[in-house]
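In the previous chapter we treated chains in isolation. Here, by contrast, the input contains two separate entities that must be folded as one system, with a combined length of 226 residues.
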Amino acid sequence: GESVGLHLPTLSVQEGDNSIINCAYSNSASDYFIWYKQESGKGPQFIIDIRSNMDKRQGQRVTVLLNKTVKHLSLQIAATQPGDSAVYFCAENSKRSYIPTFGRGTSLIVHP
Amino acid sequence: EAGVTQSPTHLIKTRGQQATLRCSPISGHTSVYWYQQALGLGLQFLLWYDEGEERNRGNFPPRFSGRQFPNYSSELNVNALELEDSALYLCASSVGQSSYNEQFFGPGTRLTVL
């Protein structure tokens, strides 16, 4: 859900469950979207990307869904594992800009 | 293949001092990006360098500056440090000038201003 101040939105799941992390983007001209995972003490790591000519893309245990009508992006993680615990960021970019815009992030906590 | 490296890992300074942060991109990458990540916030774009030139800068005051060297490594300088400059500074590199090029991030430099 939404958070206030310094606290990131948090999603808590049990190991083995599926996780869905959501992201709303603001720029209707954005045509490239990326999900990053950031573990504690590390830099963000690329997970999966999608271009605006697609509405779904699958990777290993992850799926990204893009709804351009409502400017919404989601990341689905299947069979979530404790190692998936991290902060997940979405980023949007467009042909006109070489600089992605990052969301605030969602903290995923996976309980064994 | 080595990833993006940053130094130092941690840096502690006092208000008014100057800080220099360094970044080495992945071999073959010509673009280097700098971001500030304050606690609980997303990544805020600072600077983008490509082929030795500053290509774009974010909404930060001029006391944030940097440069890119001929070997594509980069330096971020922050002058007249303020308490609110305390953050994780991330460097990323990519192959070149394309919106669709994946950015690879380093581990960051944690700057603390006392």
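The longest strand of chain A covers residues 86-94. The interface with chain B takes residues 5-8, 31-32, 34, 36, 41-46, 49, 51, 89, 93-105 of chain A (CB under 8 Å). Compare these points with the single-chain example from earlier in the chapter.
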